[in-house]
Batch of 2 targets.
Target 1
Amino acid sequence: MSVNFGYTISLPRAVDLDRNDFSVALRVLRRLPELESCIGCGGCTATCTAGAFTEFNFRRVQTLVRRGEYGGAYREMNKCMLCGKCRLVCPRGINTRAVVMTIKRELGTGY
Amino acid sequence: MDGFLRYYDHFVLPFTVGMLVLFTVIIYKYVRWFVRMPKEDRRLVARGIFTKKTAQATGEVACEALGHRKIWRVNPTLGYMHMSLALGWFLLIVVGWIEATVHFSGELTAPHTHVFFKFFGPTSHPTMTGKFINFMMDFLLLFVLSGVALAWFKRLRSKALGMRRTTRHTLWDRVAMTALWMIFPVRLVAESAASGIDGSQSFLTGAIGRWMVDEFGIAQVFNISAVAWWVYSLVLGAFFLAMPFSRYMHIFTEIPLIFMRRYGVRSGERASSFDHFQIEACSQCGVCIDPCQLQADAGINHVQSAYYLRDRRYNRLRREVAENCLMCGRCEAKCPVGIESNTLRLNSRSRLNDQPAEGRYEYLRGVDGSCGEGRTGYFAGCMTMLTPATLSAMEKVFAAAGEDVWWADRNGGACCGRPLRLLGEIAAAQRMTDHNVELILRQGVTILVVSCPICLRAFRGEPRLADIEILHHSQYILRLVEQGRILMSSDTMSYVYHDPCELGRGCGIYDEPREVLRRLGTLAEVSQNREHAFCCGGSLANAEIDSTQQDAIARTLMAQFAATDARVIVTACPLCKKMLARHSSRARVADISEVAAARAVAAATP
Ligand code: SF4
Ligand code: SF4
Ligand code: SF4
Ligand code: SF4
């Protein structure tokens, strides 16, 4: 019988850039080239209205999509309220709401 | 039947065919659009028909469809051009019909007999009334020709009429336009030739006719006449044939639109058959192009209402055209036909982006970040959370007034839903709205003060909140001052006020913020203010433009404030404040609540 000590270990996983399919990522970046300039500061996530209530992390989801990791991205982006706070705080002036809309449009309900 | 055939010549055929096609297509379109309208809309029409609204609509049709009063106001030259064509042609038809009916003593004749009356009947009448009619017909023809000349001139040099761009046309538009431009000059030649042959004395066609006879000899004038009547009928036929498929469809479509609008029919956030009446009532006049800041500041030239409506009408609307718009409403405020282009754009977006929202935002269940117990509610909204100065200013105002406040989203709350709605996610937006409405109704407030104009519009459009008075904080502050609940001291500080799109054009709130500022110091105005105010560029309705384009739009706005010597630029929207603050070098940017709170003290208790 296993005892749950309250510690969990993340599954071992790595982003394999050689195997991933980048077609969606490239289309997103073609539409929003400025996304490439994201410095990962997390300002968007810190201010996020939706993030105050649920595990939703805009920075994480869009970064994974750019790495070709699409699993769950549509479902996650659907938590966004499009309120626009993140765009106002982003130091790189990234059109974050368009990132949400474009990722949802590209991936569709399958993800 | 006799009269139908007695006055006949083969040249009338192109006209007759064109006219039959025109009326068949128009009636087919209108009936089809009407029967497909939602039942409630058709009921509105049925209920309105026998009321005074019908009379009002008739008056409006005369003013707008014939007189083009609203274009006059925007641009008098353009107004004259449209009026001379519409009113002039209409009167030519009416007076011509009277002339023909009197001449044939009421005998039933085919329409072509009236239209080509100078061919079938005499070109002039000897009696006094006859002479007057001759004069009128020539005068009206001259009136219309002056409009056509202006149209030619406008095509050559659009700048001369004070317009930077004319709209781009489709093939049908070109056919109809070319025909329209030829109709009246050719008519002048045909009627002059007929008058020359007849020896009419009228001042225009008679004079030209006499000159033709002198110059070319009577035999040539007979030839000219034969050809000219054919060409006249051909261009009329071509115009009528092309018209229902071209932008000239607006000539007739504005009429049912005016009537239905009077009966209360409106477009909505989901597309309906009524939209056709709006879309085809657009004359492509281009008045909406110049006011658009996307065009003037961001170099985007294919999305303005005129283009959007044209693309939607011909079923070639691209997603980007529907979505690239600030929905600032500057164009709508100037549109002479009063087309609800923003609402139409919204329903194009919902067609693209709306999807069932079951299972979305489940995380909001049970979320309640409110505190306090008062009957006066305060909803800050997401954007106000980013401008904490507004929040603390409102705290101070409430404290000075001794107001017991229920803070709806003090410890976090859901978005109002309007940002989702503006991008077309209607079902998702509804979930946000439902969440907030339930929260507000549960508390049972009587007044709800809102700091963000976007939220304000979301709540004002919600029928379930109809019993609650929903105020923007500028209105609320003014009310406190007027009721003597707070005192505000004034000094010599100079202010200039920026009208946020959602507050001004969106909710019609222009005066209250200005009144507050006048009580604080001196208030300067810029030329593009109130319903013509510029957008700050930050609009949540546009997720297409990048930050460089947003900045370009904001700079235009700032340039006009810099031209005044006001020390403080005041606005009443947290989003505008953020955009303005980024671009202000000299003047301070503040929300109206901040400047008011800084001077507000509690009134001495009696
Ligand atoms: S705020 Fe902007 S730069 Fe920072 S992580 Fe978010 S998107 Fe990237
Ligand atoms: S727009 Fe979406 S991601 Fe950005 S702050 Fe609002 S809820 Fe969060
Ligand atoms: S939308 Fe209005 S202003 Fe614009 S082209 Fe059409 S009629 Fe003219
Ligand atoms: S609403 Fe504003 S941004 Fe949109 S077309 Fe009209 S003027 Fe341009």
Target 2
Amino acid sequence: MEITNIKKAVLFWGILSEEAVIYLKEKFHRGFVLVNPELRPYLLGLGWNRDALSAAGLEFLYCTDNMLGHLFYLQKIKELLILYQKKMDDGYLCLSGSLYVYELAKYHNVDVKFAAGTELDLDKFSDSDASTLAGRPMYVESLLGEVEKPRLDLIKEEGDG
Amino acid sequence: MFNPPLLFPVRMQDKKILVLDETLLPWEEKYLEVLNLEDALFCLREMKTRAFGQVLLYFYTCQLLEEEYQDKSTLADLVAKKFKATRPTFDFFSLSSLLKKSLREDKPLSEIIATFLDGFDKARRRRCAALAEVLPQQSSILTICNINGELIYLAEALRNLGKEYRFYVSETRPYLQGARLTTWELQRAGVNTVLICDNQAAKVMAEKKVNAVVCGADRANLQGDIINKVGTYALSCLAGIYNIPVYAFVQYPYDFSIEKVGIEERPPQEVFMFLENIPDKENIEAIYLSFDIVPQELISGWVGLEELRLNDKRKWK
């Protein structure tokens, strides 16, 4: 799909749940492109989320996380759905990277919704940080330096989820 | 200090061009031989080199073909046209203009190009020294993609000023230039790095782990808008939100409308580079945007080859 063919899109971030898929299905049938980001380091966009969408017969558009900024810039994304891991008293505990898309959505005046995602044991994923991709080391031994471990992001914002 | 290969990733040797195959880094340092225009276009098309490497490749391709063309201006334009057709986001015609301005009948292209590149490298060192002056005493710099060795010059300049520094490196999917190239070259030079996933940028900013963003620019216009590796726009927006300055290395800005530049969309399947193990990926609908646009109001300073220009209209949020 070329970018000019995207008229309106909904971006989701987190681990899809059955309820979220139902929600996205309704959006899909209303003509929204479902943007399924990669979700580094776990690559859930190519794993869990891809499987969930495919099982529901939903087409989606995959991209890497760093391409989302340009999609916001072009005003292609009309809504962001964040699938949190845990509801807290002061906000939502969400998958790593949620703050990235949340801030970008707010900056571009894009509507943000929160909903419960599926809870997975993230420790079981082969990629636990940026140094590997699909289990393959992206570095030369002794020339890696430090690697920032991803953790859950706390988003202190009232949502309507 | 060793000679960082990415400072000059394309070199001329006898009658052939040697191109460092950046797709194989950091695991293998291999140079491809370029013997003609088609070889050069292959390297461009297959992303064997990029950024400053494609500038070098342009000049050396002209040098390589010099004997075949009586009129050097025609040669400069022809190579620019072919290169531009292969990598549309980069403005190779600005390079042909530069080259044509320097042409002298009594001088071979090799001499003209060597003089130009020597001056360019000295300018790179000077501008890193200028940027180091404005960076904090304890600099924690977030960077994206790869700026062809200039961060090593920047680290040297910071060290000369007695400033402390470390670099947070955004991995830069899908080609992972940050993880594969920048981390590798900085670590080889003994510079402290912290590698992050691209989507961790907001988190490290919110936690005040970085206090500056430094990026390159594939193109820049006179107003200060830039086009750079995809992900730079998001970093610049986030930096504005968290009150962090953004400095962009620019070269040869010229007058053009940023909105009229076609952002290169690479073949979607290339987005799966290094993901050979993902099943059935040819059936995934994907998009691959190579670059994005950063409007001038999101940039705090342009680090040019001639001067460092600060932006007093930087937009903060």
